[in-house]
Structures are given as C-alpha cells and as structure tokens.
Specification:
It is a single chain. The chain has 157 residues and is α+β, with helices and mostly antiparallel strands. The protein has helices at 95-110, 116-155, and strands at 7-27, 30-43, 46-51, 63-70, 76-83, 89-90. The longest helix is centred in the C-terminal third of the chain and has 40 residues, at 116-155.
C-alpha cells in the first residue's frame, strides 16, 4: 500500500455497527468530554471502517461509492464517500490541516536557530500538510469516479 494510492469501491452496505467512545472528566460542573465515532461495516462482503460521525449518513442496504486505502489486515479505511441511495457526499477536510501544517512549518523554519522549537513545529507542519494532501488525493479519486458514473449514465439509453 502506497501512501497516496487510493482505491475506489462501489457496493452495498451491510452488517453496519456504529461505535462511540466517550472519555474525559468533569469537576464541579467543568471539564472536557471527548466523543469519538467509528463505523464498521462491509461493502459487498468486504470489511470497511469509517472514522468520524459521517457514518451516520448511511445505513444497511444503502449503495455507496467510497475512496480509501486497504491496510495489511484487509480492512478498507474510507477517506470519503457518496451515498448513492440518498445522494449525500462526504469529502475529506483539506483546509484546516493545510492551514495548521503551513503555520507550524512557518514557525519551525522562522525559529530555525532556536534549539527546541524547530524540532517540534517542523514535523508537526509536515504531518498537517501530508494529511491535507492525502485528503485532496482522496477527493480527486471520488470526483473522478462520480464523473465517470455520470458519463456512463448519459451514454446508456
């Protein structure tokens, strides 16, 4: 599996399970509660995983087109998708990771002659830019697949 190689899968959702993890603490009415969402399901019998609350936008027996990467354990990790049954499209976010990565990279380079700051900010900036670039690539794959689908539908009688 290459870092920027995505595959497109089209199929029917089945065996969908939504999971939430709630963590944090409260002290006298103040605190921080964090909720993580994850959806595990199969697309035409092959396992898939979607992190985030976007999994709430489809259910069993919906047809979807998904872009993502398959890990060594055979699970397809979804970056974005379109629910063909309802028309919902979920694209990966590119703006926030790119802005944060660019700012961290700028701070790291700007303070290059200090000892600690570049060590912290340059890798953080590169990681943010990498995440933005991966989301852009996944969005391109999904858009290309949706364009091909529209072309195929317009050709068929």
């Amino acid at each position: 599996m290459s870092l920027f190689t995505f595959e497109v899968r089209r199929g029917w959702v089945s065996n969908k399970q939504d999971m939430q993890t709630i963590s944090g603490q409260m002290n006298r009415g103040r605190g921080h509660i964090k909720t993580k969402h994850k959806s595990a399901f199969t697309i035409d019998g092959k396992p898939a995983l979607l992190n985030g609350s976007a999994g709430l936008y489809f259910s069993n027996e919906d047809e979807i087109i998904a872009t993502g990467q398959t890990t060594s354990d055979g699970v397809f990790h979804i970056a974005n998708f379109k629910n063909l049954s309802s028309g919902v499209i979920q694209h990966g976010s590119t703006v926030i990771p790119a802005l944060m990565g660019g700012c961290c990279l700028f701070i790291g380079v700007w303070t290059y002659f200090l000892v600690i700051t570049p060590i912290l900010f340059i890798p953080l900036g590169m990681f943010g830019l990498l995440g933005a670039f991966k989301a852009m690539q996944a969005n391109k794959y999904l858009d290309a697949e949706l364009t091909n689908q529209k072309l195929n539908q317009s050709v068929l009688p």
